[in-house]
Amino acid sequence: MAIMRSLIRAAFVFGIFTLAVPAGINWKTIWLEPNPIILQSPGSFAPYVVKGIDGSDVKADLTHSPHLKISSSDENIVFVDRKSARLIAKAPGRVEIRISFSECTSLITVTVLDPSRQSK
Known about the structure:
Strand content: 35-45%
Number of helices: 1
Low-confidence stretches: 13-21
Helix content: 10-25%
CATH topology: Immunoglobulin-like
CATH architecture: Sandwich
Order of helices and strands: HEEEEEEEEEE
Number of strands: 10
Structural class: alpha+beta
Distance between the termini: 77 Å
Number of domains: 1
């Protein structure tokens, strides 16, 4: 019985440790795909994927990690919907999307076109 408790305790600690490791790994780079992003008009959207390369040169999808931080420089122009991993155009303009994971940060530009200024 004591051995079983020790095994369960070890499995629990190992499980907690493996959940915490991704953000603690020395990440070399992170990026958002696609890049660049041009949204055709307010109301349009683009799905995104955030990827990174860790210190062991292993590529990973970080899109749904609880440690990922992603934000728009102006949510009145582009709104970041983390739940569905989409960038949603709200108004014409240009914003920077900042992504951060562990000690890595990356910026990309997203442009929302103004349909009234597009040639037909």
